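Archive entry: two folds, one per protein. Generate the first.
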Amino acid sequence: MQVFDRVNDSRFWKSYITCYGANDTNGAPTWTKEDSASGYAPAGAKEGDKRFVAGELGLKYIVNNPGDTRYE
């Protein structure tokens, strides 16, 4: 069911928060030796570094169109 016209209806975007910032990183996961060895960790990341720090994007909610399967 399509309730909103997401292009022209500003109520759609005012109804949802699509990005959340990271504010408490005490329990944040850290990079491991395995992450570095497999190439999963970004360049410059060291073992034990936090994967994200306060102020960075913590969560992004992607709004798909019906039938869009790109992010499954």
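Generate the second and append.
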Amino acid sequence: MEAKRHLPRPVNLEEADDGVVEFSPLNQEEEGTVTIEVPVAEERAAWGSKMQFMLSCISLSVGLGNVWRFPYLVQQDGGGAFLIPYLIMMVLEGAPLFLLELGIGQRLRQGSLGVWNLISPWWGGLGVASTIVSYLVGLYYNVIIAWCFYYLFNSFKSPLPFATCPNETIESLNLTLPVEECELSSETAYFWYRQTIDASPTISETGGVKWWMALCLTLSWVLVWLCIMKGIQSSGKVVYFTAIFPYCILVIFFGRAITLKGAGEGLKHMFTPDMSKLLNPTVWMDAACQVFYSLGLAFGSLIAFASYNPMKNNCKRDAIFMCLITVFTATFATVDIFAVLGFKAVANYEKCVHHNIEKLQAISHNWTKYSENISITVDNYDKVWPKIFLPRLKEYYINETHKHIKNCSVADELNQAAEGTGLAFIVFTQAIVELPGSNFWSVCFFMMLLALGLGSQFGTMEGVITNIFDMKVFSRVRKEILTGSVCLSSLLIGMIFCTGAGEYWVGMFDTFAGSMGLIIIAFFETIVICYVYGHKKFTDDIERMIGERPGIYWQATWRFISPLTIFSIVVASVYYRISHPPDYPAWKMEEGVAVKEAYPGWAMFVCLVLLMAGFLPIPIIYFMRRCQCIRFDTDIHQASIKRVETTISTQGMIKGEELEEYHDSPAGEDDDDDGGLTVQGGKFRMEVID
């Protein structure tokens, strides 16, 4: 007998090649086999190869943070000592959460929006929250890519426009002098604050949209759209460039950097540990947050990527490999950065020494009287100046000397910490200017930043697009149109980042939209998987997919260690926010420096909205569904293997040749309207294996 029947359809049901599910009698003496024809559901898109998946994960995880935030943290938090809390946090929270997201995405084959609804509709807010955070992060992240485009275009000019200060003519005096703002700051700082972003004095003064930045942002979003408009079919090919090219540049930079004068000073500064820093709780919080952001956790992108994997993919091996490659890349990039910064520090030190020698010669009317035929040079400056010249000169020229003499120190140069845009667009470009063939190195550096930024942006937006496309209301919209609509809306909203206050807005979004929300999402992910879905069920799923059961390390971190670690980060972050009122670095043209300014009242409100947008959907949707204010058609996802005993005494009966159209029911939905499948006079077992 054959029949078509409404059946609860588990997620990822894998039918036989002919699309037939067979029901065999428990007792061989009972009547024959019931066969139900089930049309094979439309297959989900899949990666073209395992390499595409791995490179996409590398592009997502190995982003700009490894190049400009990790070196800053190493510089600020104890040098080599910072690697200790970083590695510990990678083991306690990084690897477990990475495998958790890969595993649940691969198991349920949905984006984050669908995954959490399938596990429990009450926790569907997790998918909504991660989608919102990913969208907000994508808004400002693409502006950074636009800045990289602008610097890349200017890198083809010779000499580099950020190598010298521009001149201005004072007509009344018929003089041509360097611009005062540039003289007060530096060539690279002036190019960044005045010629690139044209910074306004406060966040309240927008200064209008800068057309050159608007064009670069448009180019960035068009490029993102072209690369992700067909989903992983298009982005999966682009990642061969965005994932591999940065490593080529890092290797080239390494080969050049270690041969530079002063590279050893930079590397010595990097690897010299200050163990006292480990007693500072802020260092541990920095390490935990860096692991969290560098792996791309809680964005929903890893879940989306894993949903395109085959069911038997070894996601545990992938998670371990990705954590190792992230640690390696961050360390390798930091070696490159510190080697170049060491070169810059020594170059600035030598300039400082030459300046002091010239001033001393100009000040002293009888230089040879005090020199005693001892020449002062760059090599002996540290020994000769404080021991011989300074004691004798200051007796006669102390006031005049101290007006003109600078404090020259390589260590002080290396201790000048700068992060984010300050490191990439000001400090590192200053080092590039000092390199022979500076145009070539500038092109390489900003091409590398572009590849890193675009790779991460593809992953971030894929998490958004996958969630939207998986929604029924958008399932029939062509993906190119849907992706284009999201990119266009992002471009229009992103114009606020192209104003004179654009950098201040980027800093606000980076601090509030992409921080606390992600941490809270990750905390609830571990809780929902372990205590709602069930840690045993999840480990069973992992065992079926990879062929081995996760060990005690994985289970202990999922159930106890990772949630406690993340909760500690949340508490520490809340305390830090309360004890340190938010501010932003406002550029003061008259002084040539960035000064910390408190946010005005309206900006504080925007900060609060951005902060809450990342986690409020979780409790809101939970309570609304608990109170039945929102209808849902999914229930808690059931076990991967179901056996349903059917008897004529407890179930309805399928009559003769009556046929009904088959439809996909949500996972776990009860099929109360017609009862189960039975056959007169027999008891049957239905086994569904997915």
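Annotation attached to the second fold: The chain has a mean pLDDT of 81. The radius of gyration is 31 Å.
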